[in-house]
Amino acid sequence: MDTGILQGTTSEAVGDRVVARVAGGVGLSLVVMAVLHLTHVIAGGSPPYDPDSAGTAEGVIGLVLLIAADRLRREPRTAQGFALGAVGFAVAGFGLGLVFTTTGGTAVDVAYHCVGLPLLLFALWRQWRVVRAARGSSSGTGPVRTP
């Protein structure tokens, strides 16, 4: 069970499994959406929306999130900054993607971005708290509670 407690500077792994799960889930869904766009299963829309460009962007963002999720699982202490940057990158990409999809994309694309963006914003907030708590715990303040 995930208690949400960071273990300070002990030898136990410091990290947040929730962020790893969200990053992994959204990353996997992005890879699926990339395949659907690049194979033109999801096509249509009007400029500036382009399914090939969307698929490429989704593939890159999905890969970055999957790497971040994997690193958080394998080496949570050293992956904290990378994970924060990766989720921030994904938030920026989703924001830009939402602009393109609302001006010319399909309803599926708009709905996907409207579901994924809040999940990524939550993960960004949570990972920011993990990084901030880890910096505070390096001074020996002990366990820090995260929501």
From TrEMBL:
Keywords: Membrane, Transmembrane, Transmembrane helix. The chain crosses the membrane at residues 18-41, 53-69, 81-100, 106-125. The keyword Transmembrane applies. This is DUF4383 domain-containing protein. It comes from Streptacidiphilus pinicola. The lineage of its organism: Bacteria, Bacillati, Actinomycetota, Actinomycetes, Kitasatosporales.
